[in-house]
Amino acid sequence: MPKAVKNLLKVAFGLGLLAWTVSGIHLGELAVLAREGDPKNLALGVGSLLVAMLYFQWSRLHLLIKGYTDGIATSLKIFYVGALFNNVLPSNIGGDAIRLMYLKSLRADNWGAPFMLLLLYRASGFALLVAGGLIYIVVDHDRLIHLLEAQHVFVSFGARTWLIAGAVALVGLAALVYVLRRLSDKVRTRILGFLRNCQGALAQLSRADVVQLVVQTTLFHGFRLLSFYYLILYLGQHVSLWDLVFVISATAIIAVLPVTIAGLGVMEGSISLLLAMYGVSPSSAVAIALVNRAVMLFLAAIGGVIYLTSRDDVVRASRAASAEPNPAPARSPESGGAA
Q1: Is a pLDDT exceeding 70 seen at residue 336?
Q2: At 140, phi and psi to the nearest 5?
Q3: Is residue 129 within 8 Å of 338, Cβ to Cβ?
Q4: Domain residue limits, the chain
């Protein structure tokens, strides 16, 4: 199937999911809740989300790539143009691939180092989400199972599930080792060289950088969690911060599934269903999911302005990258700024 058709199907499927989710809104009910809500909670909710997405997402990236950029302005350009490609454009080049092309065209003398830094940017955010979700599952296992079953979702987080997950991971690792052994010496040498370059990127980071990355990643997710909390309060609902740990973790992980563009519809549907599971009214849950999407589109709009005013730089970076023997990686998913 042609890639253009696949992208079109992803957009159509995402819009369908979004339309189905939005159909759960009762405007009259939502208007009453909004009129009765405290504007301070609305300001805190939207403000926290803007701080998380506009500042901490960028600052995390800048911390990792500052050795390649000319300063804050270049880091901002790389971040926001990447946000445009990740959140709006149904292209075959994702935001992280664009960022990689930028970095390669600046000071990088190989693909491995900037690739590893961008991977660390993603992995650090995702790892914290997974850790938070796992801790929640372990601590509140029985209650979570009960809540899911009330929504007619039947899952198990028992020992058998973890054993199956471990077995799948071992099989995947064994398959990877087998494939590497079957490769030719030339290809294996190139792969090992790429991995050495990746390792060299990690050596560029000091302990202070690593600590700062962990702190900023925690603050990013913390501000997103607070934004949901205050928006829920504004609409006259209540969910504990502890329960929101699972909501934030689960929705970000679900949105990674590459079935739509930028998790369109998937993210909104998962946020709405999980918030409703914890007692938030369907209209309020959908409204909060739409606020989250609106901020993502705001990021993309900023990226669009920067892209239009510096398109020549992007083209030069793409041409410089495509002229190299090692191509840039394929599209990397970005969900809700989760990572």
Answers
A1: no
A2: -115, 40
A3: yes
A4: 3-322
